[in-house]
Design goal:
Layout (H helix, E strand, L loop, with lengths): L17 H4 L14 E3 L3 E7 L5 H19 L22 E9 L6 E10 L6 E8 L8 H12 L4 E5 L4 H14 L5 E6 L10 E6 L5
Parallel strand pairs: 5-6
Antiparallel strand pairs: 1-2, 2-3, 3-4, 4-5, 6-8, 7-8
Helix pairs in contact: 3-4
């Protein structure tokens, strides 16, 4: 479920134990951090990205860009990585990140299964810079909950973009818009891609201030 975004956070170099040090412990239900059930009774949690977890986001971003590559005709650069320039803007007062965590089936430790990056917090409109959910847990409701949590935590007008050829993203965000903003309380616009007149225009879901 690669959604939105148009290439790193510091460096992708990390020791083998970096992800382990970012563990949040076993996920449990309850609380304000957005826990829920994924699949047949499998708990998960959605939490803001902490300072030491941005390297985790940087790794997941590569998976996001890999999944998005067929849509945007993307290829890795000389260092073997996909573009990650947008990550240089995080963290900041204008941008925030959220990670979805679920216990890994092999270790029982929390492991990241999705992320959402939000920008425009200090501007007129919020936007989704990147959104991704691990393929194995797609269709279990994690992506839907992650999107609803991210949008609901940052009130204000939204502009959510996705590529014309990314049909699954279009279906997903239209459903989320109906849930979060309400049917008939958002619009969809098309805009040309800057510097790329040969590609179809991008789509943008635009909302007002109110959230349901």
């Amino acid at each position: 479920m690669p959604m939105s975004a148009s290439g790193g956070i510091r460096s992708l170099k990390a020791s083998p134990g970096a992800a382990r040090r970012c563990s949040l412990g076993r996920v449990a239900g309850g609380g304000a951090d957005g826990p829920g059930e994924a699949g047949p009774g499998r708990p998960f949690s959605i939490r803001p990205v902490s300072d030491d977890q941005w390297v985790v986001v940087a790794w997941l971003w590569q998976l996001f860009r890999h999944d998005l590559a067929p849509v945007v005709n993307g290829l890795p650069y000389a260092d073997g990585r996909y573009q990650a320039a947008p990550l240089q803007r995080f963290p900041s007062p204008d941008g925030a990140g959220h990670l979805a965590w679920r216990a890994h089936p092999n270790t029982g430790e929390d492991a990241p299964v999705g992320f959402a990056l939000i920008e425009g917090l200090t501007g007129d409109r919020r936007s989704v810079t990147g959104f991704w959910v691990a393929p194995v847990v797609r269709r279990e409701g994690i992506g839907r909950r992650l999107a609803i949590e991210a949008l609901s935590r940052h009130k204000g007008p939204w502009s959510i973009g996705f590529q014309h050829d990314n049909a699954s993203a279009g279906r997903f965000w239209r459903q989320i818009a109906d849930t979060v903003f309400g049917p008939g309380r958002w619009s969809e616009q098309q805009r040309s891609v800057p510097g790329r007149p040969h590609v179809p225009p991008d789509h943008f879901i635009e909302s007002g201030w109110s959230l349901q």
